[in-house]
Write a structure and sequence with these properties.
three-stranded antiparallel sheet, single chain, mainly alpha, 295 residues, 3% strand, globular, disordered C terminus
Length: 295
């Protein structure tokens, strides 16, 4: 797809940056660390987890050698990658380690607000036991992101997505879906409808735990209620008699002619049909049985 090709092109650019840094600088340097960070994240996005994690860990070590606060970025990417690969416990440990850097007076507090939204999502990934904590964290993160003017940006969508997952775990499905729709609208506006970030978020929303009766069930019940009532009014159903005419079946299993043809199905079955042989009759019975099963 177009979005995948764009990601591959961005990765190629960062690999070129990395090659130039290797050629022109010795030892740890910000140019190589920055290229490793971006290339590592894009490899994770493209499903190349082993290479992506290796590049991010190399960038973290390089920034630590230089005692640079910029290691906050590869640490965040590492936590998000661990969450995506299903290791939520390791992701929480990494994001907590990253959040400690936000206590530095020189830390980028606007970026730290986004990381709080990421932490809320990781907490929610740990399951219902951490859902309430995740919801509180997401609420605080959204307040902070609005303070730092992230409104309408893809980073704000991360806050909405984290809160939506927590709400879903707590059984507040309608609120969760409204927030997820808001997050998707931001992503589509920023990246377009075909971008993998939009598909990823939609896929994640589809995997949410849902209660046994979601909001869809009452709607479908209203749609099918008249049809269900029609079948419930019949003692058991309809069947075709030996002469091809419709018959009613009472609760005892005995067949009898419909009185007045009140059932539309029986009325249709009363019309004689041509004999298509045993296979044709078996197929007709099978189709009719499935029709009688109702919605």
């Amino acid at each position: 797809t177009l979005s995948l090709s764009l990601s591959q092109a961005q990765l190629a650019i960062n690999q070129r940056r990395l090659a130039l840094a290797d050629k022109n600088f010795d030892g740890a340097n910000v140019w190589k660390a920055s290229a490793l960070t971006d290339a590592g994240w894009q490899n994770l996005e493209l499903g190349q987890s082993e290479l992506g994690f290796a590049q991010l860990n190399e960038a973290i070590a390089m920034y630590a050698t230089m005692q640079s606060g910029e290691r906050i970025k590869p640490l965040r990417y590492l936590a998000l990658g661990q969450r995506r690969t299903g290791d939520a416990a390791a992701a929480l440990e990494t994001i907590d380690r990253t959040m400690q850097l936000c206590g530095d007076e020189n830390a980028n507090q606007a970026f730290c607000a986004v990381m709080r939204a990421n932490r809320a999502g990781i907490l929610a990934s740990l399951g219902k036991d951490r859902a309430a904590e995740a919801l509180a964290e997401a609420d605080e993160a959204i307040v902070l992101m609005r303070k730092y003017e992230w409104e309408g940006q893809p980073e704000m969508a991360q806050g909405f997505e984290s809160k939506a997952l927590a709400l879903s775990l707590l059984g507040r499905q309608a609120e969760a879906e409204a927030l997820q729709d808001e997050a998707l609208a931001i992503v589509v506006k920023a990246y377009g409808s075909d971008h993998f970030e939009r598909r990823r978020r939609r896929g994640r929303a589809g995997a949410w735990p849902r209660p046994a009766r979601s909001f869809v069930v009452p709607c479908m019940s209203r749609i099918f209620a008249p049809r269900r009532a029609l079948w419930q009014r019949q003692p058991q159903g309809c069947a075709r008699g030996g002469d091809g005419r419709g018959q009613r079946i009472d609760r005892g299993g005995a067949r009898r002619r419909p009185a007045g043809g009140r059932s539309p199905v029986c009325r249709r079955l009363r019309r004689p049909t041509p004999d298509r042989g045993a296979p044709g009759r078996a197929l007709a019975r099978q189709r009719h049985a499935s029709h009688l099963a109702g919605p």
